[in-house]
Amino acid sequence: MEVILDTGATKTVIGEKVLDSITKNWQKELKTEILKDRNSGKEVMKFKFGDSRTVSLKTIVHLPVQLADRVFKLKAHVLPGRVPFLIGIETMRKMRGNIDTLNSTVELLGTKLKGNINNMGHIVLNLTVAEGRHDGRSIPLFHIVNDKGTRERESDRTVKTSTR
User: Fold this and answer.
1) pLDDT tens string 24-70
2) 91 in a domain, yes or no?
């Protein structure tokens, strides 16, 4: 699965059909916890697309994410349909994001990741869902990984120097 880094989006969003396909095999209580901000059908906010369409959002989710050795909840607004998973600029700023567009790399929370360019020209990161631990229990976690499928932290890499 891919997550798109979208500096043109203010909020982090995911389509309800994309979210459902990811969480279809999750335990009911975990799904309930993730969707705990469902607002009883009341509007949470309006989301305006670049083409001026407006959609009323009714659900916010907190997705369990692991990035290197950090586990945290990523807040995302759920949009109707098959909208891809987009990490917006507010989330990137909170994660101290730094994007190198020339090399398609991004640094989030001190972790440097190599991305790919999708067919629309966006930098995308790979996500895998795997078993992990959060709040003392075993749950599925979204793991943000680099383009080779391995997690890498800046401090884990060694720098080779030559002395000539």
Assistant:
1) 777 776 666 666 555 555 556 777 777 788 877 778 888 888 888 88
2) yes
The answer to whether residue 161 sits within a structural domain is: no
Model confidence, pTM: 0.75
CATH number, domain with residue 63: 2.40.70
Tell me if 135 is assigned to some domain: yes
Which residue carries 């959609």 as its tokens? 55
Residue 162 lies inside a defined structural domain of this protein: no
Beta bridge partners of 76: 61
For residue 76, CA distances in Å to 7, 63, 119, 151, 164 come to 15, 7, 23, 22, 51
Query: Domain residues for 25?
Result: 2-156
Q: Which residue has the tokens 């890498």?
A: 152
- Position 55, amino acid: V
In whole angstroms, give the CA distance from residue 6 to residue 12: 9
DSSP 83: -
